[in-house]
């Protein structure tokens, strides 16, 4: 035995580090903490370097590293920061999944969900961002399949993707479950496909396709005015209604078309009606909830008022 440095028995090492004797013996047997020496009776002894080594092993175990990884660190085969980065990524993913699970459970409590709905929400909430995006991409691909459409317009429609945060609220989980059901609903898919076909027909007929941002801006402005008139108790056939209908018809009329022509206005009203499906509006409202955007107010009442004004 050497007497140069202070030595400790397993019991003393256990008291100093808080690591059980049985665990220290196991580490020794596994080669992670070889004894510095032994007594004449064969009991293991450890020096101050062993004490520091055990403290390191204890810390790495508390951080979740396995024995094989700790052996690599002790043998200087891999650095602690590299292992930490690997475990941090795994831990982040675990935390993300736990938060999703918590949000699903909160939504279940809030909705008093039955078993089938619980299964659905858990399945949908557990999807990765890539899986959610793929589901939506497949939806839009089917909506325009075989149609010649304005690529910029539909690129704008497809660019809005559902993205649940790492710590979603129950409302966001509910929104994603409803959204996923909506885009897989045959009736909704048929309605959006019909809108796409109408868009393609208008493009083929030479209608000017305005940029998406401009179209939205114009429509929001018209709709806001319609809702103001509606709240004021004005009828679509009022002078205000006729003025708004004239402005909208003028904006959509092509060369050679008379915006005052009742037949043209009825056709325009039919086009607006086909695009005013409440489910399409719900699509954007759900996206806003999931992505944490400002609330998407309903425009259905204003749209119906505009349609009535166009029809006179």
From TrEMBL:
Residues 7-76 form the HTH merR-type domain. It comes from the Bacteria. GO terms for molecular function: DNA binding; DNA-binding transcription factor activity. SUPFAM superfamilies: Putative DNA-binding domain. The keyword RNA-binding does not apply. Pfam families: MerR_1. The keyword DNA-binding applies. Keywords: DNA-binding. PANTHER family: HTH MERR-TYPE DOMAIN-CONTAINING PROTEIN (PTHR30204:SF93), REDOX-CYCLING DRUG-SENSING TRANSCRIPTIONAL ACTIVATOR SOXR (PTHR30204). This is MerR family transcriptional regulator. It comes from Amycolatopsis rhizosphaerae.
């Amino acid at each position: 035995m050497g007497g140069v440095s202070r030595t400790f028995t397993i019991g003393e090492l256990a008291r100093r580090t808080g690591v059980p004797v049985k665990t220290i013996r196991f580490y020794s047997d596994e080669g992670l903490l070889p004894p510095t020496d032994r007594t004449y009776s064969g009991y293991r002894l450890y020096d101050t370097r062993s004490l520091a080594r055990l403290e390191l092993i204890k810390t790495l175990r508390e951080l979740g590293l396995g024995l094989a990884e700790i052996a690599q660190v002790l043998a200087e085969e891999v650095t602690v920061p590299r292992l930490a980065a690997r475990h941090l990524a795994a831990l982040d993913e675990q935390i993300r999944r736990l938060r999703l699970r918590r949000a699903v459970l909160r939504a279940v409590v809030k909705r008093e969900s039955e078993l089938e709905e619980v299964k659905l929400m858990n399945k949908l909430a557990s999807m990765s961002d890539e899986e959610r995006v793929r589901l939506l991409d497949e939806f839009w691909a089917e909506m325009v399949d075989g149609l010649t459409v304005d690529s910029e317009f539909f690129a704008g429609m497809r660019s809005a993707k559902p993205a649940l945060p790492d710590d979603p609220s129950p409302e966001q989980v509910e929104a994603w479950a409803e959204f996923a059901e909506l885009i897989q609903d045959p009736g909704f898919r048929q309605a959006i496909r019909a809108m796409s076909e109408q868009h393609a027909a208008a493009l083929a007929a030479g209608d000017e396709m305005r940029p998406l941002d401009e179209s939205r801006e114009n429509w929001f402005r018209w709709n806001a005015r319609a809702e103001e008139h509606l709240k004021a108790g004005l009828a679509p056939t009022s002078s205000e209604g006729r003025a708004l209908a004239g402005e909208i018809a003028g904006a959509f009329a092509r060369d050679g078309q008379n915006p005052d022509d009742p037949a043209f206005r009825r056709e325009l009203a039919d086009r607006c009606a086909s695009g005013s499906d409440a489910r399409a509006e719900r699509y954007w409202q759900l996206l806003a909830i999931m992505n944490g955007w400002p609330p998407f107010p309903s425009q259905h009442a204003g749209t119906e008022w505009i349609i009535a004004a166009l029809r006179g």
